Amino acid sequence: MKIRAAVMVGVGKPLEIQTIELAEPKANEVLVKIKATGVCHSDLNSLNDATTPAPSILGHEGAGIVEAVGSSVRSVKPGDRVALSWVPYCGICEYCITGAVYLCEAAFGPSFSGTLLDGTTRLSKDGKPIFHNSLVSTFAEYTVVPEMSCVKLPDEIPFAQGSLIGCGVATGFGAAVNAAKVTPGSTVAVFGIGGVGVNAIQGARISGASKIIACDVKPANLEIAKKFGATHTLNVAEVDVVEALKELTGGFGVQFAIDCTGHTSATENAWKGTRKGGSVIVIGAFKPTMQITLPAGGFHRVNKSLRGSYYGDTQPFRDFPIIANLYLDGKFMLDELILERISLEEINKAFNAFGDCNCNNVGRQVIEFK
Known about the structure:
Elements lengths: L1 E7 L7 E7 L6 E11 L1 H7 L8 E2 L3 E9 L11 E4 L9 H4 L10 H6 L9 E3 L2 E3 L11 E5 L3 E3 L6 H22 L6 E5 L5 H10 L4 E6 L2 H10 L3 E4 L5 H8 L5 E6 L4 H9 L1 E9 L16 H4 L2 E4 L7 H13 L9 E5 L4 H7 L10 E5 L2
Parallel strand pairs: 11-12, 11-14, 12-13, 14-15, 15-16, 17-18
Antiparallel strand pairs: 1-2, 1-4, 2-7, 3-5, 3-9, 3-18, 5-6, 6-10, 7-8
Helix pairs in contact: 4-5, 4-10
């Protein structure tokens, strides 16, 4: 079938709206009509990454309606409302059978090579292949995805809000709920108040934390953090954040720190601002050349833990519906994460906004398809 899509034609170049061909889904695949897709900073990273195959269709935060299914698909049917997960899993490997489905290796190779799970593409133009991105390629009217990327949503949730659950929302929420396992009455610091950080705040709020301390360099972001549940804010450009965290917690430091920044200096401050026996969860992506420096003296005596969390330790088939129902119950803020609703033709405006330091980055611009 012919579809319209935003095509990455080269590294760092503006996306081009083109008409391309989309093949039918194979046995374990699903054809989804995209109704809404968020534009995430990770999409910009892919656009500027020389290892991203081109031409390709970016986009990984999407929601839509199942149009057709392959012969072996059993979990969804035509007409189902779904959010898409860019981390499908096999269900049978060492990681999956122990519950860590977010660490399944099945998706990594195809995701980076620009194919679906069988190593081939369903996208083409003039007989030449176009590559997928993150196995879901949501910057298009329709997409073909693995069955395990399709997570059913309640019919009551709007598509724009549902699309955001698939990445930034689940990652931030999961960092607090799944990875850190924030406990009622506890103290939490969140470093980096963007589209992921505010959802870590929401996860901490829903978990019953008594103090949620937002840490960032942008005053506007810190004000927004309060709307999502932060009880305190610290501008790390103006205060000694380690001492300030201790001051807010009776001299001890926080019990949980979640670093969404991708900057090792923030991780180091998070470590120093966490009390004995505390946990530091890192969900921001570091550049490969970066190094973390921690004090070695007395390391064994502080009983702290520091670990990364991929996708917020999310189990999509469990966590997406939880978040959707929290939203429908009025307990989770998704409406406020939609910064602007745009058309596919306006997609480059959304990419350009990432480079504007004056733009609000706490949320997403969302492409809606009629």
